[in-house]
Amino acid sequence: MTDAAPSDRSVLRRSLLAQRQTFAATPAFQAAEHALRQALPILLDQLEPELLGVYWPLAGEFDPGVLSHPRALPFARLEPAALQYRRWDGTLPTARDECGIATSTGAVAVPDVVLVPCVGFTREGFRLGYGGGFFDRWLAQHPGVTTVGLAWSGAETRFPVEAHDRALTLILTERELIAPD
Fold this sequence. Notes:
Elements: E1 2-3, H1 9-24, H2 27-47, E2 52-53, E3 71-77, E4 82-88, E5 95-96, E6 102-103, E7 108-109, E8 113-117, E9 120-121, E10 127-128, H3 134-141, E11 146-150, E12 157-158, E13 170-172, E14 177-178
Parallel strand pairs: 1-12, 2-3, 2-8, 8-11, 11-13
Antiparallel strand pairs: 3-4, 4-7, 5-6, 9-10, 13-14
């Protein structure tokens, strides 16, 4: 587990991303991905989402793959910084958001369950992302949404919580389901 002071969040982020890149090149990565791929549908069956917010995976992130629930992909806007979800039919996206990440051109929608990728996470349910604050802003505007952080167990860390940080409802790793208090 890695610790960070408030000014070191960017250093912690870079360290965790480097660790993830190394992990993604090992056979353990495929085993972890398989374990998470087995656990996620079971959890989603319990949560029963009407519309599931997913994400287009970046290098080393867990790829949730094909899921049987209606889905939506995020669209990030840089100015002003904002995030919205757009319904997605599951076909290969041809559009990109303003951060260059694949997204959908479907209608704007608000998912009731959202899968959130984690660069790092704490046992208390806080997530370290890529530093843009997009998910935290969206979660602040949609407090009733169930959030499931998807993370590799090796990304567990500690960092000071800042005023804008929003705790996730659950965190699912290849090893366990964490339900913060």
